[in-house]
Amino acid sequence: MTMVVVTIMPKKGVLDPQGQAVQGALAHMGFGDVLDVRVGKRIEIEMRGHDPAAQVTKMCEDLLANDLIEDFHVEMPG
What we know:
Layout: E1 2-10, H1 17-28, E2 41-47, H2 52-64, E3 70-75
Antiparallel strand pairs: 1-2, 1-3
C-alpha cells in the first residue's frame, strides 16, 4: 500500500472568501500580524498499484481539483 497526499489550494489571484473570513477572525482575536490566509484541502489516498503518483495526478485532473481556480500538489510522504 502507498499513501499519497494531495494538497489543493486556490490559485493566486482567485478570491478566497474562507481565507478572508479566517484572516478577519484572527485579526479580531488580536493576531493583527497575519497578512494573508489561504484555505485549501488536504486529501490522503491509500492505494496500491503501479505509479500511484501518476494515478492520483489523473484523479486530480479529472475530479478532485478544479483546474480553473485551484492548483494541486501530489506527494508520497516517507
